[in-house]
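Exercise 3.2. Students should predict the tertiary structure of the chain below and write it as structure tokens, then compare their answer with the key that follows.

Predict this chain's 3D structure.
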Amino acid sequence: MYVIRGYSPSSSLIILNLLTLLEPRFSIVSNHEHKAFIPYSAAFAASPEPSRHSVIKARAISLQPDYVLLDRDWQGSKKVPFDYLVITTGTRLQPPGTMEHDEKALSVDYLRSYQQQVKRASKIVIVGGGAVGVQMATDLKEVYPEKDVTLIHSRDRLMQLYHPKMDKVIRDRFDELGVK
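Answer key:
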């Protein structure tokens, strides 16, 4: 999780980013997992006053009316004061879409382990025909055409949040690739 701190002349703002999400492709394709993580170190480099902003790599333990309590010290304190707080909860994907660890090295190791499980499997079932499930199914068959890949979906259309014609395009691609 990252806590992003910014200041204006009259107030301070905290943005809590609660999840580390990544493209499902990194859990399938080997030797690219290190590219899955975007460094925030230069996030404010173009700001007129970059020193007035910080990216804090820590977990928020609790939220108080005027500060966030962190799991570790930052500039000599576990408290980060604010005038305004924005919490960006994002979406909660099942692993491997959401990382279990905050550290890049541990997450890269996790992805490599997941990739090895995929390599060893001969039959893979994906539950859910939304964007992530469709991408996982097509990526798997493109990278491992010999694997038996099945997608299970409860709706009458795949990626039902998108244009209805998208379903036919996806099903045609599934037929080409051999996704069941």
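Discussion points: The chain has two domains: 1-120, 121-175. The chain has a mean pLDDT of 80.
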